C-alpha cells in the first residue's frame, strides 16, 4: 500500500501519558507529535493540576494547536494524558475527540484509547437501556460509563471491573486525580510501552515518542497488564487469566514508525527483512529496485541488498500534498497519483523495474503506479508486495474497507497481476512474514501474531458483528445523536 | 439600567418550537432572531426529519449562522426547537449551548430551557452519585438525565415525572420523534406563548417571535401547564397542584421586547404607564424629559405625556458598539460611556433635565450619564427610575450581580442621589409598578408577580442556595469537566 | 428613507486626523468609531512614528480591529490619520481601503478622502497614459499620483498643485513626515471640522468625533481652505478663487449624526424643524405620529410637537439584524421588512397614523412599511417625508442609484401615493427645507446648499459623466486590475 | 544542508504559464503545486478571459487555496501565469505576492519572476524620483513600471526595452491580453523550460511541472532569450549580445526536484554523481552510509554505490513538522532537531557512520545531527558534504545569510570538523562538482556555471551592493510603506 491509499488502511490512534513532571502537557504534546503518523485528524490533552482537570481537544495536527504557548499554559499540571486520532469535521464530532473526561462520584476521570472494542455497541445499547446518556459515538465513552456506574470504591477497581466487560483490542491510558493508569488488552494486540524520564514514568504507543523527549525505554506493557503510576511509584496488575501475547502484525508492516522498537523488534529491521524474504521467495531479473515511497523504502532496501539489484528512487514524492485539486476537464490524462508521486524518468526509462510496496488494499493505486512506470519508459515492471494478500477486514482499530473492497478477496494472483498491468506480481508468504519476525513459521494452533487480515483467524469474539443489527446501522444512529 | 449595564442584568434565554411545518428550521431561525434580545451569545436548533435528529449549535448571533442556507438544509425536518442564550467562549462551553439532545432508550430527546432550577445542583449531585456522566454545566442537562432514568413508558410521562423533581423557574420546549412539548413552571415565572401558523402550532418565549413569521397568537401557556403537540393536535396537562400565577415582573421592566404582549399586557403600554406613574409620584420642575436609550424611551414618553414636559433625544446612541477600545493613556478624560452614548448638547445645554432610566443595578453607569448631562451644560439633572430599587439578587434565570454589588442594597435614596451626582433622584414605588400593571396594589399575601428583586419575597424554595456547598464552587468543578 | 434602504443611499466615507499626541492612533480609532455611521465596511489608520509610516487597513467595523491593543501598538507615532468607508469583500479591494500611502521622493505621503472627484476617471486615464500604475480603483489614488509627479519642492505645494487639477467634492486629510494637512473643496460640499485637545489639533468629518474624545470644537474648515498643522502650529491657505460655500444638504437630512453640529447648525435641531415645517405644510387629521426608526425619529418629534398629535414608537427596530435569512418557502407572507422592524400593534390598531420618514429613494421599503401599518390595524396611514422628492443622482460621494431607480424620478405624487398604498402622501418642499435651515428660501441664483438631488442643479462640472466612455465601464476595467 | 536549515538557504520562486487552454488556471495550479518546493509561503495566479484579467494571490500553499473550485472558477480564461514564493505574513506584504498586475496604457500586463535584479533598488530609486508609486517591495514591480513608462508601441518592445535596463538573474513569465511571454537572463542563471500539451505551449521553472500535467518537454529557454507565445504560435527574440550560458549550480545541489531535468541534465543523476565523486575524493572506513533526509538521499546513494558501504535510513524524518513547539523547561535536553528528525538507533548503534548532507550553510544543524548520531551509539561519524564550502552570499534569488553567518567563511576545514564534533569532515571539491556535471573541470576563464557561493566569482555587476546606501536600509524603508 502506498501513501496514496491512506484512505483505505488507517491506524485509528496513538496515546501518551506522563506522571509527575512539571511540564507534563508540553511533554505530552511532543510525544503526540512523534505519534502523529498514528492519527492526523484530531488531537487532545487532559492535564490535572492538583485541583482540577484541564482539557483541550482540537481537529488538526498536534503542531497546529498544541505548539502554542497559550494552549499549553491552559493545560497546567504535572500529570497528563494525550491522544491523536482520525475523525471527521464539524461540531458533532469534536465530542469524539479524546481524551474523554467526566466528573464522576469520587473525582474526575479521563481516558484515551487506541484500539476497538468488538462488543462496544452491545455494551452501549445496554447502557442506554439503563438510562445512560452517550455524548460521543466512540467506544471509549463506554469505559467512562462503566467506570461511572461501577459500585467499587477505588478508581482502579472500577476501571478493572470495566475492562472485564470489554472484548477486543485496546491500549488505554487513564488519568485520575491521583494516578496515571495504563492497560493493554489480554492479547496485547495494540502496542503500549513504558518509559522513564528523570525518574518520572511515561506511557506511549511507540518508542519513538520516548526518543523525541530523550526518555529511556523501560519495557513493553505486557498483554493483559494494568499498570498504576502514582506518587508511590509503579504497580502492576494482571486481572485476566494468563495467555500468550498475540500482537498485531500490521504495526510492523505499515503503522509503526521505522525507528520504533515494537515488542522488542526494530520496525525498520523487520521491514528490511520482509524485503529480503521477498527477494528470496520471489526474485526477479531486473535492473533496478524502486520503492513506492515512503512506506516501501525499507523493504525495497532489504530486497536490493538481498538480491544485489541496485536500489533507486524511481518515484519522487511531493511533500506538499494534502488536498485534491480541481482536475482540468480537457485534454489531460487523469492526474490523480501524480499529485503526490512522480516518476524519476532517468532511473526508469528502458529498465526492468522491481517495484516494492508494503501492502495492497484496494489496489486502485497499484494500477496507477504501474502505469506511471510504463509511462516513464519501464521495459518491465515486476511488482513485489512485502506482505501477504489482505483478504479479511480488521475489527481491532484499523480502518479497513469491507471485504468486497479488498482486492485480494476478489481476485486470485493472476487476476490481480492482470488488473495492475504488471509483468509479474508476488506477495510475501505468511510464513515469510513470520520468518521476517525471526520465527521459524506461523504456529497454526497458537499463532504468535494477530494476522487475521491475511488468514481470517480472528483472535477474539466479534460480538457486535454477530449481533442482530449490524454495527454500521448502529454507528449511524449514534452519529445522529 | 441603561444598555451600558447589560453586563449586570441579563435574561438568560429564549425558546422557540414548531411542529408540522416543512420549513421548521427556517421558521425557528426567524423566531429566534426575533428573540435575540433574550440572549446574544449562542444559539442552537434541533430538528427531527422523521428518521433522525439534526442539531446545530453555535456561538454568536442567530443571523451569524442560521441565516445560512447550508446550515438550514442540514436541519431538515418538519418539527424543530431552538434556543438563544448567553455563554462564554471556547470548546468546553459549546457543550452548554442548547437545545441539548440525547439518544435515549425509546428514541431521541431534545430540550431547550429558559429559567433556572433552584435545586439544579442538588439534583446534579445525586445523578453523578448514581453514575450519570454530565457533559454540560447547564441545569438543562439535569432534565435529560431525569428523563433518561425514568422507568415510565412514554416520553411525556417520563418528562412529567422529571418536572415533579424540579424546583424553580422554567419555560421548556422539548422534542421527541413524535411530539413537541412545552412546559411552564407552577408559578409561570418565565413566559411561554402558544401561536399558530396555518394550522401548525408554535411555542415561543414572546409574541414578537410570532409576529415576525406572521403567526397568530393563540394564548399564553398557563402556569404549571404542559402542552403536547403532535399529529393528533394539542393536548394540555396540569400535573401540579393548582395555584395562582406569579409571573416575573422584570419581563415588563426590561427584558421583553416593547412590541410583545406578555401575559395579556402590552409591554410598551406598561412601560409608558410606569413613566406616567413615576411622573405622578415624583414630578420635577424641568424643561426636557430625556430617556437613557434605548430601554428608557417608553417610560420617558409616558413621563413626558403625563407631565407635559417635552420629550427630547438628549442622548444619542452609537449603534456600532461592541468591543472595548484601548483607552489613550494621556490627557483624555475617561471615555467609557461615550463609546456607546453621547450627549446631544443642543437639547441639554442650559436646561433642567428629567433623565429617565428603566432601572438601576450597580449604578456605575448612572454616575457617568449624569456627569455627561452636566458636561453638556444641563442646569439641573433630575433622575427618575421607572422601577423600585433593586435590593435582592434573582435565582430564576436573570443574571444579577450578588447583593453587595447592588447599589440599592448598599445605600439609601439620598446616598444614591449623592453618589450619582443628581439634583434629585426618585424610583417608582412597588405599588406604582403594580398600578402600571392595572392593579390597585401589590397583594402582600399572594403577590400577583414575582418581584423579589424589589421585595426579597422569593416565590420558591432556594434549595441549592441553602445547601452546604455553595453553587459557585459547584459550578467551578463542573466547568472544569 | 428608512434604515432598511441603506443599500440605496450611503455616505461613502468619514475622515479623522490628529497631530502631536502620543496616543495618536488610539485617539484616531475612537474618532473613527464615532464616525462609523459614515462607513461600516472598512477602516484604516496610518501613523508616523518619526521614522516610518505604519499602516493598518481592514474590512469590518473600527471596533472589530482597531480596539485591539496589538493593532494600536503597531500604529506607533504621534501623528495619525484614519478613514472609514464602504467597500466590498476580497483581496482585490483591500487595496482600496484608505488611507492610501506611498513612499515618494522626499518621504512618505498618506491621504484619506471623503467625497468624489467628478473628473477622477479622466485624470486617471491621463496618468495611466503617462506611465502611472494604479493599484486601487479609488479616486483617492489619483491624488497620490498627482503629488508624486509634481515637480514642486515642498509637499504642501505639490498637494495644492494636485488639488487645482481636481473637480468635485472632497474633505481630505493627509499626513507627511512633518505635517498633517486638511482640505475642503472650493464649495465645501463635504464637511470637515477643526478641533483641539489639550493644544493638539484634530481634523474630523463631524463634531461627534470630537465629543467622544472630549476635544473642543474650534471651527469648520472653510470651503476651499487648506490647513497645515505642524510642530509650529496651524497655517491656513486659500489656493482657490473665493466663492460662497455650498455644503451638501443631505448631511442634515440623513448622513450626519443627530448630535453633530454641521456648518454651525445642530443636525438634531434641523431635523426637528424639518418635521415641524412638514407639519405646517402638510398637516393630517391623525391620532399618532409614528417615526420610521431610527432616522425618522427627530422629524417625527418635530411633527408631533408642531401638530400636537402624540408621538409614539409604533415601529420597533430589531437591533440584531445584519444578514438576510433564508425565507421559508411555504405558507408565510414575505418577511423582508419584519427582520428589522416590527409593528407595535397596541399603538397602531384602530388609529389614524402619520408615518414620518426622512427620505424616499427607491420606495420599495415604503410600500412594506405602509403595509405593516395596515396589517397592524391602522385605520388610516398618512405618509409624510421630511425632504423633497429625490429626482437626481449624486456624484459627490453619496452612493445613489441611477435615475431610473429613483421613485420620484419615475412617478408623480399621486403615483407614488398609490404605489405605496398610503391614504395620503406629502414631501417637504424645497423651500421648506431651506426654512428648516433658518433661511427664508432657496436662492435660485446662488443656492446656499448643494441640493441637486432635489433640483438637478449640480454645483460643478461633471467631466467624467460627459466623457465618451461611461464611468461604469472604466470602473469595471479598473476593478479587474 | 539538511531540511532543518531551510531557513538559511531558500530558492525564492517558481513560475508557470500556459496559453490557449480552456482550463488554463487549473493547469497552472497543478504546475505550481509541482513547483511548490521552490516557494511555500505564497502563491498567485492571473488569468485573462478575453475581456479582463482575473487575479488571486494568497499566503500559504498552492493546495490550500488553488485546489478550490470557486477560486479556479474566478480565474476564468485560456491564458494564465502563476507564481510560488516566500513571503512573510500580514496585509502589507500580500502586495508582494506575485504575479503582479497593472492596467497600463494599451491594456493589462501581468508578470511573475524568479530571480533577483542586482540593480533593482537603484532602478526603483530612479523611478520614485520620477514620480512612480511603488506598492510592493519586490523588484518585480520595477519591471511593471519600466514597461508602463516605455514609449514603445507594442508590449513586447516595451518589455524588451525594460529588460535591457535590468541586471542580474531572472526567469520571467508575463501575460498581456494577447500574448504569453517568457524571458531568461543573458546568462541563463535561473531555469525556464518550454513545454507543450496538445499543441498548447507552457513555460515553467522545471520539467517536473510538465510531468504532473502530462505535458511534453520541448526545450530549455536559452540564456538571453525572449519567447512570445500567441494565437499565431511561438516566436523567439535574442535581444542581448550573445554569450555563453552560465546557469546556477545550486539548482543541481539543492533546489530543483530530483526528477527534474535542468539544462539537459537529470538532477537525480547529478546528485548521485556528486555522491560518487565525494566517495572517490574522500573515502571513509565505515559500516553504513546515512543520508541527512530528504535532500541528502541521492548523494548518499551515489556514495554508497561507489564505495560499496551499505546505504541505510539511519535518520527518520517526521513528515508532520511545521511549527515550533513549546520546549519543556525542565530536565529535557534540547529537543530542536528531534522535532523533525530522529535517529534510527538499530542502524547506528556501534557503527562507523558516513553521514551525507548536500551542503552546509550556517552549520548549526550539522552540530545537532552529528550529536544525534553519537547519542544513538555511533562509533565514528564521518561527515561528507556533497558540495564545496559555501563562502559567499548569493544575490540572484537565493536567500543566503550574510557572509559572517556562513560557517565556511568563518572557519577552516579542521575548525568546522571540531565545531561539528565529527571524526572526519570533507567537502566535495569545486572540480569534483564540475565532474559531476560531466565536465573535465571548471574553466576559470569562462566558468560553465554560476558558482560564486563557492568561488566568490559573481557573474554580473552588483550595482545595488556597490551603491552608497545598503540594500538592507532601502528594503526597510520600502517595507515601511
From TrEMBL, chains A, B, C, D:
Cofactor needs: Mg(2+)
Cofactor note: Binds 1 Mg(2+) ion per subunit.
Family matches, as CDD domains: GPATase_N, PRTases_typeI
GO molecular function: amidophosphoribosyltransferase activity; magnesium ion binding
Domain Glutamine amidotransferase type-2: 13-232
Location of the active site: 13 (nucleophile)
Binding site for Mg(2+): 295, 357-358
Pfam name, any one: Pribosyltran
An example Gene Ontology biological process: purine nucleobase biosynthetic process
Gene3D superfamilies in the cross-refs: 3.40.50.2020, Glutamine Phosphoribosylpyrophosphate, subunit 1, domain 1
Pathway(s): Purine metabolism; IMP biosynthesis via de novo pathway; N(1)-(5-phospho-D-ribosyl)glycinamide from 5-phospho-alpha-D-ribose 1-diphosphate: step 1/2
Keyword annotations of the record: Glutamine amidotransferase, Glycosyltransferase, Magnesium, Metal-binding, Purine biosynthesis, Transferase
InterPro entries per UniProt: GATase_2_dom, Ntn_hydrolases_N, PRTase-like, PRTase_dom, PurF, PurF_N
EC class: transferase
Enzymatic reactions: 5-phospho-beta-D-ribosylamine + L-glutamate + diphosphate = 5-phospho-alpha-D-ribose 1-diphosphate + L-glutamine + H2O
Family, similarity comment: In the C-terminal section; belongs to the purine/pyrimidine phosphoribosyltransferase family.
NCBIfam families associated with the record: purF
Primary role: Catalyzes the formation of phosphoribosylamine from phosphoribosylpyrophosphate (PRPP) and glutamine.
Protein name: Amidophosphoribosyltransferase
Originating species: Lichenibacterium ramalinae
Record lineage: Bacteria, Pseudomonadati, Pseudomonadota, Alphaproteobacteria, Hyphomicrobiales
